[in-house]
Amino acid sequence: MIFPHPSHRNPLVFLVISSMVALAGCGPRTTPEITTESDVNRTRRTSDDQGLRVFGEIPAFTLTNQHGESFDRSNLDGKVWVATFIFTRCGATCPYQTAAFSELQQTLHRADELGPVELVSFTVDPEFDTPDVLAEYGTKANADFKHWHFLTGDRSTLWDLSKDAFKLDVQSGRDATNLITHSSLFVLVDQDSKIRGYYEGLSPEANEKLRDDISALLDERDPSRLERVTEISVPRDVRDPKWLQPRAEAQRALASGYEVTCDFQFSDDLSSSGITFTDKVVEDVKRDFKAAHYDHGTAVAVADVDQDGLLDIYFVCQLGSNELWRNLGGGKFENITESAGVAVADEVSTGASFADVDNDGDADLYVTRVRAANRLFLNDGKGKFEDVSERSGLDHVAHSSGAVFFDYDRDGLLDVLLTNVGKYTTQERGPGGYYLAYKAAFTGHLFPERAEPNILFRNLGGARFENVNDQVGFKDASWSGDATPIDGNDDGWPDIYLLSMQGHDQYFENQQGKGFVNKSRELFPASAWGSMGVKVFDFNRDRKLDLYVTDMHTDMVHDVAPEDEKKKMTRNLPVSMLGTDGNHILGNAFYLKSESDAYTEVSNEIGAENYWPWGISVADLNADGFEDVFIAASMSYDFRYGINSVLLNDHGKRFLDSEFILGIEPRAKGTAQPWMTLDCDGADAGHRLCKDRSGKLQVWTAIGSRSSVVFDLENDGDLDIVTNDFGGSPMVLTSNLTDKHAINYLRIELIGKQSNRDGLGCLVDVQLSDKNLIAVHDGKSGYLAQSRMPMYVGLGDATQADQITVTWPSGIVQTVEGPIQSNQKLTIVEDGETTK
Amino acid sequence: MSRIHTNVHFGRLAGAGLIAVTVAIGVALCLQRDEPIEQLDVQVVASNYRLYFHYPGADSVLGTADDRLGTRNLYAPANTQVRLNLTSRDFVYLVEIPEVGLYEVAAPELDFEARFKTGASGVHSLLGSQMCGYDHSELIGEFVVQRTAEFKRLVRSLSPAPSPSHPTQ
Fold first, then answer.
1. Domain residues for A129?
2. CA within 20 to 30 Å of B5's CA: A420, B24, B106, B129, which one?
3. In angstroms, what CA-CA distances link A812 with A489, A758, A817, B33?
4. pTM of the model
5. Are A767 and A652 part of one and the same domain?
């Protein structure tokens, strides 16, 4: 290293150099350095109380810069500048002066103040320091020559300038070529060429004072600067990640080899949709990212709340009002939150589940919250909701997360499994009233007292529920955010697969509605440690329902380069932190079902890995008869940008990465968003991003999705995607599949009679000439959410189905005989008519 | 001249003898000082994006008034069984010394123990990071394995540790 860049901040180095200077000066070791400005305090040249004094004025001068060009004082007119005197042969103070200038240059550059502020290094050894020598010297110091000038010229001019104008002595012994003593001070000059301060160039404290005084001068020169907003990106490339385009091109290049339908596009139609929802997040994840569960975001769910045949969208806002947007058709929406009465604006909301809890034929709504009573709303059938939380028994208070409605005892009433994360917050409240998270919230699972039980509520009828954990032996306190019913042993009774975001997932076998037995490690000896999203579906059309689990927390163990995102993590957290036997899959898990109670983990073999995943939405995006996956992914402040993933199902053999091919990435709205504005002169002065900065600072950070829902938003036959993006605006991604292709699909609405009204838990088998398409109706699409919507079955090339068999939770097996023409909606009533 | 020569000769002999004795004593002292320390206990406390290391002082017992405190770099004598007790005063930190296979967490209100044996003298990487946080250069340091005598000297040169009941800065 040519210049001892950081060491001048080292007090020891400062002392050593100062001693050297005091004893020897710069050049001859026997000549003491002399500085003449005896009236000036060396470390504090200005008075905070009196503002910046005027010490004198710099007269006009004409010298030569490092490029051999004439440079006179007028080049600096109107600017604030900092001067110092050095010479390149100097071995004592000069390298440290120049290193400090170099650092000052960087600081000014970061603050966007290089330009309004210039740096000038005058040589005191002009015979040796020719322009070429100075240019080489400046280059080694990484000088930006547009704003850092190295000046030489006639010795008498330079020395007179130092002594008479700057009042800094300079002397030489008998050998004038290298025995030069000069000052190591920095001099601050204002826009009128007046000297406003002196600072010891070797003192870190004095340099900080210089920095402050520069800001004061800039403010004095331009008072409007105080209101100026400087934009920064965190990380620096977040608005234009260099890896994104090559990755997009690489993926698009693969598309020609894909044997799946992928020549269609999604476009973000948020602006034309009329939706203006914006998620607002708590300060724990906004101003200073705290690794806590608030960064998991909030849900988006859909249901036809007013029964007009169009699916409406409910966005959950972390801190503020949730919003219900009524689908007007044609991709347009209107905000009906107020009239619907589902804002839930107080406290922190998390999840949203639509289900018909009272079997009256409409979509009721359950909203989960953090340390506030969860809310159950009954729908009047027209989109007006009544809060029945208290009398329902579902007004549980915890750090609640996803709620999953299903009928565990098959009595025709929808029960609900409420997942609760665990106590990740303190007693202290932050701005907006939320509870501050622990600084080490992700160790919560190691503290038994912080666990919160996940609760199975049985529906008693009349929208009343009771906690039956003890009754059915469902004992679990995993740090869970979501769960799914799954019939692992194919006995027709819904078992439970419960995610743990800090530990092993849990599997509970249903004992015919009378109890649950934990068989977690028997069926799933290795599970992901940080599970987030889950879906049960038939990946390879072998008539067995497989299980896909996404894992976010393991992806936080170490950094992964963008090109390695499809690989598993190389290691997990230390076992002491895991709090388990350590037998984990290092990322997403995909369990292919082979027979009852038998699963094989194949995530690597089929390409199910991605990076920073949250929830998943499984649906046949290209209507080819194989279920595809949308994974809401990525982090937000202060992480790098991460992509959402689309995995197209290649005929049940593997997943094909397709987010760039389908236009979902890069996001039309960009990779970053304005995240916060800091007042670096005020309340945020201590923020780490305000270091070396003043004024207002607008911070741009990565956009990141959390929850998603896939449904036919426009009723045009293809599937669209709506996301809830963390701390920002959602995406309304509409597909043009039906514009490009004549597709075949069926929509199937189920109406239970003996079974629950929504038909949740139905196993639907659509028989085509060459295969059976089975799916379980569970309403799950995306993280933290449950939607109430018809099933969508892509038929591929088949224009008709031969038969549809529905196995209802009641046990009734109902057959709808074919041929059943594609591209229609079937309403199948349990043990009754089928309407086409 | 002769007398002078004799004196010089005698002086040379005496000097050589003195040097020999000094070297012998030095070697003996060194050998005595380099008696291996069988086990070293170190308390590792993460706080405000730094790692602090509490070493036992002259009494060789950790948690007493003569404990010494270092930061950033961890020192240990060669060929010694080291037992680290890790905790944190704020966030969760990962602490890693690849050379000895150490990979552990320092977390608030929790104590994690890690054991490893040092090899020969050498300087290795000590990698600390705030879990899910941004980079902190202060958490990156060195794991320095020293001869016993050097280690003891190093520990003596460290500042006294705060009260064992409040073992952070």
1. 56-220
2. B24
3. 19, 15, 16, 85
4. 0.81
5. no
